[in-house]
From TrEMBL:
This is SPNS3 protein. Gene3D superfamilies: MFS general substrate transporter like domains (1.20.1250.20). Keywords: Membrane, Transmembrane, Transmembrane helix, Transport. Belongs to the major facilitator superfamily. Spinster (TC 2.A.1.49) family. One of its GO terms (cellular component) is membrane. It is a multi-pass membrane protein. The chain crosses the membrane at residues 43-63, 83-103, 110-130, 136-159, 171-190, 202-222, 277-300, 320-342, 354-374, 380-405, 417-440, 460-483. It holds the Pfam family MFS_1.
Length: 492
C-alpha cells in the first residue's frame, strides 16, 4: 500500500510537470479512459513476438546445424569455420545500440517489421551462393545479424510495456523459451532439410517463408503504437485507470536526455554492469557450444569408432538432430524452472534473482567440464552432462532480463538492452566460436594430422568455456551486493 501511494503521489507530481510543459507551449498526448482491459490484444501481440523470436533463433543456428557440410563445401579450417558465427555476432552486436536508440525514440512496430523483412530476404539470397564466393557467404551472415539485432533489442521492451512486474517475468519466460526452442529447431531443421534434399543450401530457404508469415501477422495483429509506461501510467493503472495514448517517447520524458547521458547513467548502475558481465560469460559459453558441439560430438564418435569419418558429399547430421532436441528440452525446462524459482524465492530474499543466476552458472560449469573429460570413453555420459550443463545455463535467460527491467528506468530500457547485447556479444559469443577454432588449429599444428588430435584439440579448446562460466557466476554474485539499492533507485 505504501508503494502504491508513492507511485500515485509521483504520478501527481509528474502530472504537474506535464501541466507546466503545456503552459510553456509543449503539446501533451491526448488520452482516453478505456473501460475494458485489452488482455486479448496483449496475448496476441506476445504470440506474434514469440513467433518472430522463434524464427530469429532458427536462422541463428542453421549454420551450426550443417557445419560439417559447409566446412567441407568451402574447404575451411576450424578457424575460418568459426569466423562465420563470429561475423554474424559482430554485426548483430554493433547494430544493437543503433536499434536501441531508434527503439527509444521511434515507432517500434515499423522497426521490427523492417528488420524481419531484411534478414529473411538476406537468408534466402545466401542459399544461392556458390563454392567460389565464400566471402559473400560470410557477408550474408553478417547482414542477417543486423536484421536480427532489431528484433532482439526492441521486442522485450514491448512486453515490458504490456505487463506489470508480477506477470512480466512469466511472459518474458515464455518469450525467452523460444531462444532454446528456436536454436534447437535450427539444428534439426537444417540437418533434416539437408538430409532429405541432399543439398544443404535448401536449409536456408525455409525460414524466409516463415519470416513472411511473421511479417504478415505483425502487420495485422500488433497495434501501430504501443504505449510506453512510465511511473505516471503505472500509478494510474494501479488506481484503476488505464490510459491509451499515441507512442510519443519524448512526451513521456520529464526532460529530454541525450543518448550519451542515458549511457552514462547506465554505466553507474552496478547491478546492470555486473549482471551484463555475467550474461557475457553465458553468451561466451552458449556461443561456443552452439557452434562447435555437434562437430565435437562427431569427432568423439569417430575416435571411439562409433561412426566413420565423413568422406561423402552429405555428412552424417545425427548429432545436430540430437543436440537440437537436447537444446529444446533443456531450454524449455530451464527457463520455466528459473522463472518459478525466482517467483518463489523473491518472497523470501530480495537478492534471489542474482543468486539463482550465480548458482546455476557454477553448476553448469561443472557439468560441462565433466562432459568434455568423459567424451573419449563414454559418449552417452557426454550427452547427459551436456544436457545438464545447458539446463542450468537456460535457467538464467528470463531472470537476467527481468533484473535489467527493474533496475533500469523504463525510458532507458531499449538503450540498456542494446548496450547489454553489445557488451555480451562483443566479449562473449562474437569471439568464442572463432577463438575455439583458433585454439584448435594451434593445437593441431603442433602434432601430426590424426583423428585423435582432431578430437583432442577441440576438447582442450572447449575447456575454456567451463572456466569462463565460473567467472560468470562470480559476476552474478557481485550483482547481489548492489541489486536492492539499484532497484530502489530505479523506482524513485
Amino acid at each position: 500500500e505504501d508503494e502504491d501511494r508513492d507511485l500515485l503521489l509521483q504520478a501527481l507530481l509528474e502530472g504537474q510537470n506535464y501541466g507546466a510543459a503545456a503552459a510553456e507551449g509543449t503539446q501533451c498526448p491526448s488520452v482516453s479512459v478505456a473501460r475494458n482491459n485489452p488482455a486479448k490484444r496483449d496475448c496476441l501481440v506476445v504470440a506474434v513476438l514469440c513467433f518472430g523470436n522463434l524464427i530469429n533463433f532458427i536462422d541463428w543456428f542453421i549454420v551450426p546445424g550443417i557445419l560439417l557440410d559447409i566446412q567441407k563445401y568451402f574447404e575451411l579450417s576450424d578457424g575460418k569455420t568459426g569466423l562465420l558465427q563470429t561475423v554474424f555476432t559482430l554485426c548483430y552486436m554493433l547494430a544493437a545500440p543503433i536499434f536501441g536508440y531508434l527503439g527509444d525514440r521511434y515507432n517500434r512496430k515499423i522497426i521490427l517489421g523492417a528488420g524481419l523483412f531484411f534478414w529473411s530476404g538476406v537468408t534466402l539470397g545466401s542459399s544461392f551462393i556458390t563454392q567460389s564466393h565464400y566471402r559473400i557467404f560470410v557477408l550474408s551472415r553478417g547482414l542477417v545479424g543486423i536484421g536480427s539485432a532489431s528484433y532482439s533489442t526492441i521486442a522485450p521492451t514491448i512486453i515490458a510495456d504490456l505487463f506489470e512486474e508480477g506477470k512480466r517475468t512469466t511472459v518474458l519466460s515464455i518469450f525467452y523459451i523460444f531462444i532454446p526452442v528456436g536454436s534447437g529447431c535450427g539444428y534439426m531443421l537444417a540437418a533434416g532439410v539437408a538430409k532429405s534434399t541432399g543439398d544443404w543450401h535448401w536449409a536456408f530457404r525455409v525460414t524466409p517463408c516463415m519470416g513472411g508469415l511473421a511479417l504478415l501477422l505483425l502487420i495485422l495483429l500488433v497495434p501501430h503504437r504501443i504505449q510506453r509506461k512510465t511511473a505516471v501510467h503505472r500509478a494510474l493503472s494501479i488506481s484503476g485507470t488505464i490510459l491509451e495514448a499515441d507512442e510519443k517517447p519524448d512526451v513521456h520524458r520529464t526532460a529530454k536526455t541525450t543518448w550519451c547521458q542515458d549511457v552514462g547513467s547506465l554505466v553507474k548502475n552496478c547491478s546492470f554492469v555486473c549482471s551484463s558481465l555475467g550474461l557475457t560469460a553465458m553468451a561466451f559459453v552458449t556461443g561456443a557450444l552452439g557452434m562447435w558441439m555437434p562437430l565435437f560430438l562427431y569427432r568423439a564418435q569417430v575416435v571411439q569408432g562409433i561412426v566413420p569419418p565423413c568422406l561423402q558429399e552429405s555428412c552424417n547430421s545425427s548429432n545436430s538432430l540430437i543436440f537440437g532436441g537436447i537444446t529444446i528440452g533443456t531450454g524449455i525446462l530451464g527457463i520455466i524452472a528459473g522463472a518459478e524459482a525466482a517467483r518463489r524465492l523473491r518472497k523470501r530474499n530480495n537478492k534471489a534473482d542474482p543468486l539463482i543466476c550465480a548458482t546455476s552458472m557454477f553448476i553448469s560449469a561443472l557439468c560441462l567440464y565433466i562432459a568434455l573429460m568423459v567424451a573419449q570413453t563414454n559418449i552417452l555420459s557426454t550427452f547427459i552432462f551436456i544436457a545438464f550443463g545447458e539446463l542450468f545455463l537456460s535457467v538464467n535467460w528470463a531472470v537476467v532480463t527481468d533484473i535489467l527491467l527493474y533496475v533500469v528506468t523504463p525510458r532507458r530500457q531499449s538503450t540498456a538492452i542494446a548496450l547489454q547485447i553489445l557488451v555480451s556479444h562483443l566479449l562473449g559469443d562474437a569471439g568464442s566460436p572463432y577463438l575455439i577454432g583458433l585454439i584448435s588449429n594451434s593445437l593441431q599444428a603442433r602434432h601430426a594430422p590424426s583423428l585423435q588430435w582432431s578430437f583432442r584439440s577441440m576438447q582442450y579448446s572447449f575447456a575454456t568455456c567451463a572456466f569462463v562460466a565460473v567467472f560468470g557466476g562470480g559476476f552474478f554474485l557481485l550483482t547481489s551486493f548492489y541489486i536492492e539499492e539499484d532497484r530502489r533507485e530505479a523506482q524513485r
